Amino acid sequence: MIQKKICLLGGFAVGKTSLVRRFVTGMFSELYQTTIGVTIEKKALLVGDQDVTLMIWDLYGEDDFQKMRESYLRGSSGYILVADGMRRSTLDTAEALHQLAQSTLGPVPFVLIVNKADQLKEWEIDEATLARLRHKGWLVFTGSAKTGEGVPELFMRLTQTLLEAA
Amino acid sequence: MNQPRPSNQPPSPDTAASPQLKQEWAELRTLLLAPEQTQLTELRNRIDHTETDAPSVSKVLAEAITLRGKQDERLTAALTPHIQTALTSSVRRNPHVIAEAIAPIMGPAIRQAIVRTLQGMMQSFNQTIDHSLSPKGLAWRIEAWRTGRPFAEVVLLHTLRFRVEQLFLIHRDTGLLLHHVASDTAVIHDQQLVSGMLTAIQAFVQDTFSTPRGQTLNTLEVGECRVLIEQGSQAILACVVRGTAPGYLRAQVQQTLESIQLDYADAFAAFDGNPSGFDATHDRLMECVQTQYETPRTRTSPMTWVILSGISLAIALWGWTSYHNNQHWRHITQRLSAMPGIVITTLERDGNRIHLAGLRDPLAEDPEQILVEEGISSEQITAHWSPYYSLDPPFIRQRATAMLNPPPTATLHFQEEHLIVTGTASHAWAIEAKKTARLIPGIQDYRDDDLRTVSIEQLIEQINLVSFLFDSGSSTLSEQAQGKIGPLRTLLEDLQILAQSSGQHIVVEAIGGADETGPETMNLLLATARAHTVIAALGGPSFGSHLTFTTGIETMSTVSRSRALTPHTRKLLRRTSFFTSIKDKVPQVAPTP
C-alpha cells in the first residue's frame, strides 16, 4: 500500500468539496458550504496491481479575502486544479494557483477539471481556451460533481500520473 | 675520484630500438618480474570484472555484515524491506515452512497474550468491584446518574492519572501517516485522516501566527484529552494522552522521535508514500503507550482517625469492663466456693441470668445472699439446691447443738471428729445427749468426762450450806465474806438455769441474823440490813426469771427458843444464811424488794 497526498486547488465555489465528496462517497449535495481552512478525505484505489491511498486535501477556495497557504501544499505529490465553467475568472485563478503550486512543489503532476459540465450552455469557458491549455501540456478534464461525469477518471488519471512519475 | 663510472644501467628500449634488443629486454623482464606481472593481471581482472569475484566476497561477507551492523542501523534498514518481501513471498508460496519455523515461539506467545488478557480482565474486574462496592464507588455511581455519563467514564475521570492512548508517526512534509500505535482501550478513528489534520493544524498555526522556524504547535488540549506534538526534521510524533501527562512523557516522546529519525534516515530519504518501511518502529512507539492510575492516598483523613480512636476507645472500654466483670465473677465464684456447707456444681452466666446449682447444708448460709451483696439482683438468680450434711467442724458442732440442745451451763466442742461436752448439766440431759450424739453425722466419738452433772436438790443443798459472818454491829461484808460471793453466785446461776430448763421456780431466802447485843429493835434492823447486803452483793433481787430472793431475819429472840446460846452460837447469829426452796410454778408477781 502506498499513500499519496494530493490537493484540490481552485477559486471560490468552483466545486472542489463537491468533487471530493462525489469521488469519496459518491454523493452530491446542492447545499453549499464553504470550506474554512482545509478538509482532508481519504480514498483507497487500485491502480494496476498497486494499492494506493489518496489523502485528498481539499483547500478552501481562493478569492479576494482568502489567499492560498503554501504550507498546505507542502508535501503534495500532485494537485487538481478546479475551475467553474460558468465563470471565466475561475480559470484565471486556477492558472495563478498553478503557478503558485509549481513554485512551491516543483514540477509535480497535476490535472485541470472544469466543473459544472451539467450546465454547459451557461459556460463562459470555450473549447478553444481548453485546447490552448492542452497544447501547453496540461491534462484537462471537463466534468460535473453533480452528475459524477468525469470525476473518477480525473482522480484515476492523476493517480496513474503520480505513480508513473514516482 | 669524480670521474663518472661506467654505467651498469642497460640502455633504454627507446634508445636501443633494435628488435633483437627489444626481445632480449622482454625476456629479461619476464624473467625478473613474471610473478608480479601475474598478480597485477589478476588484480586488474578483479577490478574490471567484479561479477566474477563472488568467491572472494563470500569469504568476508559475514565479517563485513557484522562490522557494518555494529556501526549503525542502516544495514538493518536496508535489509528490512528485502527480508519482508522475501518472507511475504515465502509465505505465499509455501506457508507451512514459516508456520513450522515459528510454531515453537507462537505457542508461548499466544499463551502469554492470553495470560495478559486474563490479567487485564481480572484487574478490570477487581477495579469494578472495588469501585462498585466502596463508598467512593457509590458516590461515583450517583455522579454518573446525575450527569448522565457512563459509569466507566466517571471512574476513569477520577482514577486515571494519565493514559497514552495513541501515537502517530507522521511524515513531516506530506502529513502522511508512517505508523500508528494505540492502547487496547483507545477509541480509534481514521488515523490517516487524523494524521493529515494534525499536520494541517500545525501548518495553519505556524502560518497564522508567523512563528519563527522551529517553533511549532506542540500541545493540543481538549478537556481531558491532550495531544503532545513533537516535530523533528523528518517526522512528527503526536502522542494522544488522556489525563494529566507527567513531565517525563514529553521527553520520552522526543527521544523516541529522535531515535527513529536517526535509525530510519534512509527510509525517510527514500519515502515515496509507502509506510511499510516504518513498521519496525512499532515496538519503540509502544514503549510510550503507558497507563498510570491514581495511587491510593496514603494520608488518612481526620475522620478516619476519629473513627479509629472511637473504635479503640470502645474496645479498651469493653476490654476493661470485661476484665472487671471477669474479676468480679471470679471473686464471686471464690466466695461461693469458700462458703462452708455449699458445694457448687453449676455456676453459669447466660446474659444477665445466673444459674446456680449444687449441694447445700440446711445450716449453711444462703448463697444467693452473697450474689445480692455483690450487686446482683435476686431476680437474675436461678438457684437449685440439693440438701446434704456438711462435715465441716462448725456445721457438726452447730448441728450437735441443735440436736442435743445443751443447757447454757454446758458447752459443746468439736475437735477431730470428737464431740466434747464441758460445763454443768442435768444428769438426765447428760444421759440423753450421750445417746443422741452418736447419731449426729460427722461425730465419731462423744466425750463428757468434763461435764458435771448436778440436780436442783444438790445445788439447793450446797447453797443452803453457805453463810456470811459479819462483825458485831456491822452489816458490811468482810473481806473473807466477799470471797464467798463469787462461788455462791455460780451456784445460784446454775440453779437458775436448771430451774429454767425444768420449768420450776426457786425461792432463795436470805436470812439475816443478829446477836443479843444491843436493843432488839436495832438488832432487827441490823439483821435485815445484813440480808440485803448479801442479796445486793449477789446481784440484787432480780437475779433471774426463775429465781427469787426473799429476806428473813434470825434474831436472839427467835433463836433462843430453839437452842441454847454459846459464844460460838452467839457469833453465828451475826450471819446471813440461806433457805432455798422450790416452787412448781413461776410466780406471776414481781419479787419482793
Write the layout of secondary structure elements.
The complex is a heterodimer of chains A (166) and B (593).
Chain A: E1 2-10, H1 16-25, E2 38-47, E3 50-59, H2 70-73, E4 78-84, H3 88-105, E5 110-115, H4 127-135, E6 140-142, H5 151-165
Parallel strand pairs in A: 1-3, 1-4, 4-5, 5-6
Antiparallel strand pairs in A: 2-3
Chain B: H1 19-48, H2 54-71, H3 74-93, H4 95-133, H5 135-147, H6 151-159, E1 160-171, E2 177-182, H7 191-208, E3 219-222, E4 225-231, E5 235-243, H8 247-263, H9 265-269, H10 282-286, E6 291-293, H11 302-338, E7 342-350, E8 353-360, H12 367-373, E9 381-387, H13 393-404, E10 410-415, E11 418-425, H14 427-437, E12 445-447, E13 451-453, H15 456-464, E14 467-469, H16 479-502, E15 505-513, H17 520-537, E16 547-554, H18 556-559, H19 567-572, E17 575-583
The share of residues in helices of chain B is: 40-55%
**Proportion in β-strands of chain B:** 15-25%
Largest sheet of chain B: 6 strands, antiparallel
Sheet bearing the most strands of chain A, described?
A: 6 strands, mixed
